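Crash report, auto-generated. Payload:
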Amino acid sequence: MAEAQTAERGDSTEKFVGARIILKALEEQGVEVVFGYPGGAVLPIYDELFKQNRIRHVLVRHEQGAVHAAEGYARSTGKVGCVLVTSGPGATNAVTGLTDALMDSIPLVCLTGQVPTHLIGNDAFQEADTIGITRPCTKHNYLVRDVNQLAQTIHEAFYVARSGRPGPVVVDLPKDVCMAMGPYTTAPKGVQRKQHKTYRPKTKGDSAAIAHAVALMAAAKKPVFYTGGGVINAGPRASKLLRELVALTGFPITSTLMGLGAYPASGDAWLGMLGMHGTYEANLAMHDCDVMINIGARFDDRVTGNLKFFSPGSKKIHVDIDASSINKNVIVDIGIVGDGASVLEDMLAMWKARRYQADQKAIKAWWRQIEEWKARGCLGYEQKGKLIKPQYAIQRLFELTKHKKTYITTEVGQHQMWAAQFCRFEEPNRWLTSGGLGTMGYGLPAAVGVQMAHRDALVVDIAGEASIMMNIQELSTAVQYRLPVKVFIINNQYMGMVRQWQELLHGGRYSESYSEALPDFVKLAEAFGCVGMRVSDPKKVDDTIKEMIAIDRPVVCDVVVDQKENCFPMIPSGKAHNEMILGQDGKTGKPITGEGLALV
Amino acid sequence: MAKKPVKTAAKSQPKAAKAVRVKAAAEDQSTNLYEGMIPVARLRDKDIYRHVVSVLVDNEAGVLARVIGLFAGRGYNIESLTVAEVDHERGLSRINIATSGTHQTIDQIKAQLGRLVPVHVVRDLTDDGPSVARELALVKVAGIGEKRVEALRIGDIFRANVVDSSTQSFVFEVVGNTDKVDAFIELMKPLGLVEVSRTGVAALARGAAGIEK
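Recovered output after restart:
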């Protein structure tokens, strides 16, 4: 059937088998690495993979790992990550990773096998309604029913994944389509490429809106930049322009979890991360500011705290490439739809052209206030006694790796927040964490993906002992491909963040949050063919870390830490930015009551 | 369905307060905009308004599921939804959604619809100038004697056609805007209303310009 249609079109003389067309399209899209797992429905594609050596395939141990690895690859390189999984369970296992990528705006193309078209809907073996299942967890998805549409669909999938607000795209590939003969069509080039019939995201911000925004900034007395993952996604140029704008205005800057590294932590204007576990100075600056300049962040609930009391006195400017992010959670005064780099460039140009000057006197007073907040030393902790404080372990890890080309990934929980607080990023794309979805098990496969892209870099997954168990099987992948990733487990034998919330919200009833029956991580590492290490003496932390980073093999380092440490500062759920618990004095604050109890 | 009183946005909203532009396919970009100085007071208004939003989409498999999934997943209200192919050559379908919500919610709905890949244009027929909206309802009424005569009389007033009749029942076909159809059904209730089948709203903007202008 497919052959006949091609013959009618007659626009391409050479015919290829569908699986070959897929690989040709991936090659043309610049794919170097595919993370995947074979199965019945994708056998023709794996057969073509076998016959070539331009595209490298990384065999993961679970499809969720494939998607997180592709996320790690994508976020550390700025390219589109590529995943290949089989039908049914292959596709359903990928769902968590796809949702993660959607929430954090990571560009991915995930090719899923599907049963032959004539069996679709018949409850065939390993059949799942992949398109139906992945519709709400992808930016877009395609089912290719005709080999003649195959090449164009894959090209379009890459275009959609990387354009506008990036995200994951699924292409579902029935086995018969992969085995049919059809023509290969090249990707649209130049002007044509931008002329997708419907999806043409706006990248240039409205100049009138930018003019208003810049005028508002110039008149500000207590301004703050609040930047997010959008700046990272807008490419290294956006980070450069952001740094320029911050330097030019002298305004303080804070960032979301996803935005760390766009502005260097060593920069003069840096306030640290904001939000639930952000710094005191960043959150109070957000609360008290008179002009807020949000670039590429989305007023997530982890950032805003109670919306009723969120930055009550400020005029808000919101720059986002996704129009639906504007006025979704927080009503703003000026909305600018556009790419971060493009809008920052226009802002800079306009600031310079109109010879704006920040109100030096007011800004100085504002900084004096901020310095007072900073003096509280909200990230303070005391390393004393025989137990390693988790903060100490992470801080030492950072200090001993900061001179290297280091990439940090994390799992989800307390260790993630401590990593965000204590690892001070100087560059974008060096920090990979599951922000929106909060996926435990993200860090190790993401580290695998990063190391595939940056063979010479130091890649460390800062993990918790509970999170790491969720995708521990990927150690096997790291060993197979000789990826010397380092898994740095902050082991407090609790699901630490769950335990912390149970302490603060549920009267210390630690329901099911104790990590019972933990494996011996050293032996486990060795069983996988990695190097296992353990440290429990604070005096030996430095030596252990040095030893770990000197080993050119995958290492699992089990850091036995104080079980009772909580992550502070903290905005309790349902509270405002100016109601933070500081807690370094050992007190855990008042129990959370009322509506805060029902929030997550 | 919305429990709060629903207002008709067109009447209650001054035209000047409009900063939300849901843009049609411009030469280079088709993403719908939400940009510029935003009238904050309008967005803080917590009243519920009824809107008819028309969406021009590629007539491809699953496109309706995308739209419905968006509404279900994000908790938006759908009062009625109609969909049919309107341009066979170009493979375009038009979806008309009658929905209600605050200004903020309606704007979110439009922005969310605008970022779906197969969507060409999103048009708010309530906000973006005057429009005409019609729906058709088939209304079955059973009764005898004076009630039967009264039903027929009211049907006449509403210019409803009788499309089926037995000695004890009528099926009326009534066409009009939602209010008119609602009113007709309300009047039929005491006269032996059996059941109703409604098409949902079809709507177009008034004037010469089309949705893709």
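Post-recovery validation: Chain B has two domains: 40-127, 132-204.
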